[in-house]
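re: that complex we talked abt at group meeting.

here r the seqs, copy pasted straight from the sheet so there may be weird spacing, ignore it
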Amino acid sequence: MSSAGSTQNWRQARGPFALLFGAPALWLALFFLVPLGIVWAYSFGRPTGLTDIAISGTLSNYVRASSPVYLGIFAKSIGFAALTTFLCLIIGFPIALVITFASERGKALLLLAIMLPFWTNLLIRTYALMAMLRTEGYVNTSLGWLGIGPLPLLHNNFAVTLGLVYVNLPFLVLPLYSALDRLDRSLLEASLDLGAGHWRTIREIVIPLALPGILSGLLITFIPALGSYLTPDLLGGPDSQRIANVVERQFKRANDWPFGAALSFILMYLTFICIAGQGLIARRRERALAA
Amino acid sequence: MSNREPKGPLDYARSTPLRLWVAMVLLFLYLPLAALVAFSFNESKRNIVWTGFTTAWYGKVFDDSDLITAFANSLTIAALSTIVSLVLGAMIAVALWRFRFPFKPLVDGLVALPIVVPEICMGVAMLVFFSRVLPWPTDLPWPLDLGSIVIAHISFSFPFVAVIVRARLASFNRELEEAAKDLGAGEWRAFFDVLVPHMRPALIAGALLAFTLSLDDFVITFFTAGPDTVTFPVKVYSMVRFSVTPEVNAASTLLMSLTVVLTIIGLKMQGKDMAKAGNG
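got the structure back, here u go
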């Protein structure tokens, strides 16, 4: 963060400022804010023909979005995103701990091992999971040799949750690792020297101190899980519709753009609420520490 | 190495249960991918039982002109999107780092917005934009017909570049730039000879990320693309919907190898730059 003293007032260098600022700002406005603005405007309209939309300022799309059917889908999306995030935390925390206390070489190798699947195409990873979970997939074939199954592993909420954990785990491990890596190790040693066990040290020293990092890790796992489209689409069944899948249906098959627009903006507001909530907790904590 | 030293209280990396846990999770992460690669060499079309080694599926991939077109489209889109994202991202990062101007916090937030907006929201926004405001002509020659997808990809990629470059700029010693100017370098010289070399590692990391994001994107492309422009993920998606065949495995293996090679090149280049920066 640069202080005000070292930044230059834009008036003193209008030319360079306009040159640097103009193109990206224009791009952002034209190819991001305008499209979002149109969708926002559509959310207050209604379809008047096959392709025509009258923006009448109606709230009927939002009223429809708060009917029990759609509230149920929102609740399910939030609930399963929370479950995914929780599972990622349970699975990822020990890994972050090991990476933090590994040797330099081990650290680099483990980080690479966690990151490599993350750089792999999402569709390919999802496809790889499908091949594992299908009725005649590897898992069920192996279970079959043991005389078990076949189990219904694909096209249900179990598969969606497993898929979301599979693709989002690196998102959580990296911020967790960077939070744990910044901890003052002498505090942990002191706690262990004074007779607290490992569990107690983790619960009462590590987690409170690393909380801001843990929270931001939870946030960047929760947000993509909440808005995920591909994973529920390919791994889910009729019972696994998430917000994003309903939005897609409104825009593609159902052709009710205004309603889809309203749903997609509710998803966006939910995302913003999560970010604001995390920011608020972090700021309150800073103030508490300063006081 | 350090294995002979007595185990310290904080040696979580050498605790057996934790090591087992890491091994299990890595197995969970890699087993599906390993199976995918292995069965791209399997003779049987049924993709479950190993019947013998073959490279026939790769031959089939190279004969599948639709798949090759989709692959070429994806690489072209990723290359174009990366170049523009790099320029736009670096520009806005320098502008935000260097200048004070009205509504700066707002601009700061807006630049970060494409990073947090759910993909599906951005996808439908692009669908609406390119069907109502700026209908992209469908009969353009290649690669102009990919224009709408490239534009969409730049919009979600350049903010990532901006974040990475800005983090790097925070460690820049402004006196270097002043020294260059004192020694007679103009704005341009100072910018390209002092600031840009300092940004280099961030530019490499940003380019790598932008390229991968573009190559990886399915949702936004799915909404932006017309019926005639198909990218690799969109093509694989339609293949996967129909059936699971070893041909998809072979195509996926090729893309995965490309990603691994790119990642390693990127890490190597960054490593070299970091080493240089450390000495300088």
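couple things i noticed - The two ends of chain B are 31 Å apart (CA to CA). The longest strand of chain B covers residues 99-100.
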